[in-house]
Design brief:
The chain is mainly beta. It folds into two domains: 112 residues, no CATH class; 119 residues, no CATH class. 14% of the residues lie in helices and 48% in strands.
Length: 306
């Protein structure tokens, strides 16, 4: 009898502890403001979604750019830093404006002053590791990326809608163009494209890295100045304002290729003086290069003898 009583009491105690534990987990999940929440009887982990935002960005060089779909390249779209001795996370959907300043002492934490939609101010800091976080967004002329440490002012204008996204889409497909190299040799090319990766021109604008799809380009003139050792490119774009880019060594060394009338053609970007784009290369069509240079779509084998 005594053994049976002990077993009953142990079962009741275990059931009570299980109920208290489940209630505690539910309360913790409801109060938790981290990017993960717990839901369901099995404790299923659900990652919160952070909406993409449209922003006006001013970088460390004072250059202002309007971007849509602004987001962290890795991780959720939120600020991670410190408030005093505590670590904090602020979703960008709650923020109206951020002002970033450099540390008062070398190697110190950078400061970020947040203005929330409610009007409340939050003075936070972030360290060098967080300063290496990469952010990205889309401008009218291409994809733009920059690091936290290169930001100085962010003004959040709206949540990104599908209609806000750029109409140029992924930087795929070649272009037909006339290329002049640094020795003055002119060549007509079909299907001009990067040998690796998407088909864009990659350079620096202010403190940002910019990827301009080649099919947006009508003309690029490359030159060097006495003030800077970097290659400079003046890009004329279809229906858009011109863009001036600087090209570091790794961008100069990108290999591009196309097809000329005499065969395959390869060249380093740093060896190009001018590109004049005729059009995007038509897909599923093997063109006569000369006809393509004249703007005609004549398949090889069907063109008239020359």
């Amino acid at each position: 009898m005594r053994v049976l009583l002990i077993i009953c009491l142990a079962g009741a105690l275990a059931q009570a502890q299980s109920s208290d534990s489940a209630a505690g987990r539910a309360a913790a999940g409801a109060a938790n403001d981290s990017p993960r929440t717990v839901s369901g009887d099995r404790g299923r982990v659900v990652r919160r979604t952070y909406p993409l935002m449209n922003v006006d960005v001013t970088d460390a060089r004072g250059l202002r750019t309007s971007l849509v779909a602004f987001h962290r390249v890795s991780g959720e779209n939120r600020f991670v830093g410190f408030l005093g001795a505590a670590s904090i996370e602020i979703p960008y959907s709650r923020v109206a404006e951020i002002v970033v300043s450099t540390p008062s002492v070398p190697g110190g934490r950078m400061r970020a002053k947040f203005t929330l939609h409610s009007g409340k101010k939050v003075n936070a800091t972030f360290d060098e590791r967080e300063g290496e976080q990469l952010f990205a967004g889309y401008s009218s002329f291409g994809r733009v990326t920059l690091y936290w440490r290169e930001l100085r002012h962010l003004k959040f204008t709206a949540r990104t809608k599908t209609t806000d996204l750029p109409k140029y889409g992924p930087a795929t497909g070649g272009v037909d163009l006339r290329l002049t190299d640094r020795e003055g040799v002119v060549t007509e090319l079909v299907g001009f494209h990067r040998t690796t990766g998407d088909n864009f021109i990659e350079g620096l604008r202010g403190a940002s890295r910019v990827e301009v799809p080649l099919r947006l380009v009508t003309r690029i003139v490359f030159s060097r100045t006495r003030r800077s050792p970097l290659l400079i490119g003046e890009l004329e774009l279809k229906g858009r304002q011109p863009v001036r880019l600087r090209f570091p060594r790794y961008a100069e060394d990108r290999i591009y290729r196309g097809r000329a009338e005499f065969g395959d053609y390869r060249i380093r970007l740093g060896e190009v003086r001018e590109l004049k784009v005729h059009r995007s290369t038509p897909r599923l069509r093997d063109l006569d290069p000369v006809a393509a240079a004249e703007g005609k779509e004549i398949e090889i084998g069907k063109s008239k003898p020359r």
